[in-house]
Structures are given as C-alpha cells and as structure tokens.
Amino acid sequence: VPTFKIVVAYDGTDFVGWQRQAGGSSVQGLLEGALSELDGRAVAVVGAGRTDAGVHALGQVASFALERPASPETVVAAVNARLPSAIRVLDAAETPAGFHARYQARSKRYRYRIWNGPVMSPFERCYAWHVSTPLDRRAMAAAAPALGGRHDFAAFQSAGGSTTTTVRTVLSSSIEPMPATAGSRDASALIVYDIVGDGFLRHMVRTIVGTLVEIGRGRWPPSHMAAVVASRQRGDAGPTAPPEGLFLVSVEYGDI
Amino acid sequence: VPTFKIVVAYDGTDFVGWQRQAGGSSVQGLLEGALSELDGRAVAVVGAGRTDAGVHALGQVASFALERPASPETVVAAVNARLPSAIRVLDAAETPAGFHARYQARSKRYRYRIWNGPVMSPFERCYAWHVSTPLDRRAMAAAAPALGGRHDFAAFQSAGGSTTTTVRTVLSSSIEPMPATAGSRDASALIVYDIVGDGFLRHMVRTIVGTLVEIGRGRWPPSHMAAVVASRQRGDAGPTAPPEGLFLVSVEYGDI
Question: How many Å apart are CA B255 and CA A233, to the nearest integer?
C-alpha cells in the first residue's frame, strides 16, 4: 500500500478549519473527497496540525495511503484538479508505509500577522489582525523570547483542549525584524510573530499573540510574559487573537 | 465649496471596476454613495485611473467637492464606515477648488504580478496571473525598457479605447529584481513588472505584459518589444493579460 506525504497550502477564510465536521467545508474533507475519487475507495487523510476556521496554511503536511499505484506527480495534478483554488497541493512524495503526519512531526512553525495602522489594508483583511491603536513593537520583541524552552503552557490553553499534558517545548519565538520592503506605502504597519515548537495546545499561538498585543499596548511590561508562563493561569494571559492572522508555515520531520 | 483629494486602496476582485455602470458594484459608485450620505446631496467622484473589473488599487486618487464643511479625518472615518472592507480610504486632504484627480495627474504607476510556478498559490489566486510554463525572466527584463520614452503606443491599445491620440510618455518600465524574501517557500515564482507613465491607453499595461510573457516563453526575442512599438499594429503584440494581476500603485501630481 503506497503511503504519501503531501504539502498543502490553503486560504482558510471560507473553511470550517482543517478537520472534517458537520455543516461546512473542511480542508481535510475536501482532500479526502478528491483522493477517494482518485483511489476509487474512501481515503482517510491525517494532517500535522488541526487548524481552526479562518486559519491559513502555507505548508500543512498530510499523510494517507492509496491502494492504486500513483506517481507523486499524478497525486498533485489529480487532487488539485478536484479542489477549489483556495486549496493547493504543492508537493507530494511517497513515504515508508506507516508514516503518520501528526505523530511523526518533530516541530511546526506558525506565523501570526498583525496590521497595526489606523486603516486596514483591503489586501490584509483576511490575512492579518487589525489592531488600530499603536503598538510598541520593541516591547513585544522583548517579551517574545520568554516563551522559548520547555514549559508548562497551561496559561495559553483554551477550554476544550484535550491533551493529557500541557508541557511543550518552544524552539523559537520572536517578532520578525521590519522587512526592507520595496514600495508598499505602509509595510511598516505589519508586525509578524513567528514561533516554532514541538507541539501546540488549543489556541496556544493565538493566546500568546493576544498577550503580546497587550504588552504592545502598554498594559503589561515585557517581563509579564515570563510571569504568565510561570503562573499557568489562563486569566493572566491576554485574549485569544482572531484566527485570520494565523498561518501554519511548515512542519519538520526527521529523515523521512 | 471644499474640494478633497483622497487616496483609495481596493481589492478589485468583486467589483465591476472603478467606473459606475448598470448591473454591478463599482468602486466609484460605492464611494459616491458613501459621500452622498455624508454630504446630504449627490456627490460626484472623479478617479485618476478607470481600472477595469478585477483590477486592484494600492493608491488610486479621487477628487470631489462637498457642500458641508468636513475635516479630512471625518471624511476618512465617515466614508470607511460606509464602505465594504474591500475598499479603504487611506488618506484625505483638502485641495484648492477645481482640483481634478484625472486631468491634473502627472503620472501613474501600475504594477503587474505574475505567478510563474507549476502550482498557483491560494494566496495569489486573485492577485497575480498564473503562468505555469517557465518564463525567461532575464529576457523579459531585457525587453521591458524598450517601452520607455515618448511613443505611439497604438499596438498596445484594445478596441474600444476612446482617445484622440495614442502617443504617451512612459517614464520607466522594468521587471523588478527578485526580492530577498524571508521564508516564503516559493517567492521566486513571483515576477513583478512596474511601469510609470503620463497616461495609459485602454488595456495598455495588460497588453504590454501579454507581450512580455510571450518573450519570456521564447516565442520572440527581447528586441521584438521595440519592433511592436514601431509597428503600431495590435496584431504584433501579445495577448491581453488577465486583470487580476494588475494594480494601480500610485498617482503623482505637481505641488497641489
């Protein structure tokens, strides 16, 4: 049974999220539908990250097994031909049997984009959180690295999370330096946060970002971030940032 | 009568274009509706460039007169509150009476974005032309400057243009160097063309881009671009590129 690993990008705006569920189009459901047509039987697809409604992916990774032989090129072309243009398979590769996109993921990178200007760009309205009050970018950059390391991230978990432990390792957490952009009249309005970790709790990235924004507003000093981690109390963190600013950028595996 | 100049950005995907017309939402029509509510009478809005359906603007400029006094800040806030989020007034300023956004424009900058990779990015599907066959970016860059200068651009005008003369001055025409991007896995797929001119014929930028793409495909050498200009025959140019890749970037005036 050939097993495949695919890299998938999607604009999450019009989906109920990655996961199949009643009452709405999911990325997983559309992929399964396309692959089932290709394979002539029901195909189950596993995704590395279960992104919420409105969350995007630049490089989600998914795995599945087919019964009929198919080249990676055929998988890319046949699945894309059956998907809406908001979802694209970027790449496919055959893997050893038993490869599981979620269990075997070593780390995932997420990005969160904030548009910090008085007027929201029409081109960012589905791809960034609009915060119109001026944020102290340097305070946010000073607070971000406090997430790095192995910690109990219980303070950043929303109700409804289903994990047995809330300990995770964050490999990097930073506000990106301002890009040297060509031409855009207000590129400086964009604040980009990047985080890499071995796993994430429910709404963890969005709650970290909500906390960073409160620090950027001056409600708390940068040192508050370490205090929230230590307290493990959800009430000490900021609000959950909205989904449209969040992107699953990439998923890393060992040598598969 | 206070006269205003506003800078407007819009995602043109869901509009019939700048210009008011029967059977569809236009940017001009929506702006006029919002301003008419603000002023309590019908307000006519003039745009610097009449962008087609699906064409975007980062910095369209428009002018209008109000009868009631209003601060520029009020104009920005009141109009944005009445517009869909796909259109945003970025800036407003009072101008001398009689200012006319189209007649007084000295030059306009347009940008055209091409996604040259095997798979279209979901995030570019409304903002770039997908050309999947590999293009010779250097040949396109070599051809682009041939448009510069004062020429008769009749070869690049679509039927339906309504100008008395087809002579225009192009101040710059170039393929942008590849950006040094952070992180995007296929930023190299993006080819960006920029052109500044004192005026543009109907579909002129899109027909120039269609010609550049034929040169990029190897159908013609870079020197063909100068030959098309000289021939003034529409049949010697390439096809008209689709609207979704085109952006009106900015409009320049003298000292107003």
Answer: 57
